[in-house]
Design goal:
It is a single chain. This protein has 8 helices and 9 strands. With 251 residues, it is an alpha/beta fold. The protein has a single domain, classed as Ribokinase (UDP-N-acetylmuramoyl-L-alanine:D-glutamate ligase, 3-Layer(aba) Sandwich).
């Protein structure tokens, strides 16, 4: 069966309040004129300002849920969100590449919830490097870039990660470049600044939404730089959509 919209798959957590995870991802995909699909990697207990717990899904169950989607549909873009550990993401990424060697994977490496709840602890560097070499884009914030790279400086850390895959270093937690992102791709460092000077309201799940917007932008045919810039503009719209922590998704 042929659909006129490109299909984008989210492999991420289930957030009951809908601000993050697969619910936020599929809302974003649909706003970008894509057909959103989802496989759950973890079932969370949380609300917009409190993360309580997560029940992780076994990697074999994740693969069992992915398999029929690739058997039925053409999937070129996959976004990965929270996932239990590096062994699980390695298993999932390897399976995705077997289903479609050309699939582009966007990984939002959520290592901790915004409330401080740790989601991924042990990081074996060899396993991480192996995973990143199969990833198209990784989207860490400054703290995640330091952790993933083992470098105390987020910029040099991002440059190291960029030797393995494309990197979008998010500036939301940066003291030096707050609100400014940097794309490290093809040996270039591209500055992506916010487009509005309006007051913005923080949103639960904004990182999930940014990475899923990038995935959708890639699916509709935009190049990586344009995808990152357009996705940032989309996130600025949802930040301004209302003063509360849960976003209204607006086109």
């Amino acid at each position: 069966m042929k659909y006129t919209r490109p299909i984008v798959l989210s492999i991420a957590g289930f957030d009951p309040c809908g601000g993050a995870g697969v619910l936020a991802d599929t809302k974003t995909f649909e706003q970008h004129q894509c057909l959103g699909m989802a496989v759950i990697s973890g079932i969370t207990k949380q609300v917009e300002d409190r993360f309580i717990s997560v029940e992780w899904v076994d990697p074999h169950k994740i693969i069992d849920d992915i398999r029929p989607l690739f058997e039925k549909y053409t999937i070129e873009i996959v976004k990965i969100g929270i996932i239990e550990n590096l062994n699980t993401i390695q298993t999932v990424v390897n399976f995705l590449k077997l289903q479609n060697p050309n699939v582009k994977i966007v990984w939002d490496p959520v290592l901790a919830a915004s409330s401080g709840f740790k989601l991924m602890n042990a990081l074996n560097q060899d396993t991480l490097n192996s995973v990143l070499q199969k990833i198209y884009l990784v989207t860490p914030n400054v703290n995640e870039a330091r952790t993933l790279s083992g470098d105390s400086n987020e910029t040099t850390g991002a440059e190291f990660l960029a030797s393995l895959c494309h990197v979008l270093l998010k500036g939301g937690h940066s003291h030096e470049n707050e609100g400014t992102d940097f794309l490290f791709a093809d040996k270039k460092k591209i500055k992506i600044e916010k487009r509005t000077n309006h007051v913005v309201y923080p949103k639960h799940g904004s990182g999930c939404i940014l990475s899923s917007a990038i995935a959708a932008e890639l699916a509709i045919g935009n190049d990586l730089e344009s995808a990152c810039k357009n996705a940032k503009e989309y996130v600025e719209k949802i930040l301004n959509s209302n003063p509360n922590l849960l976003a209204y998704h607006v086109a």
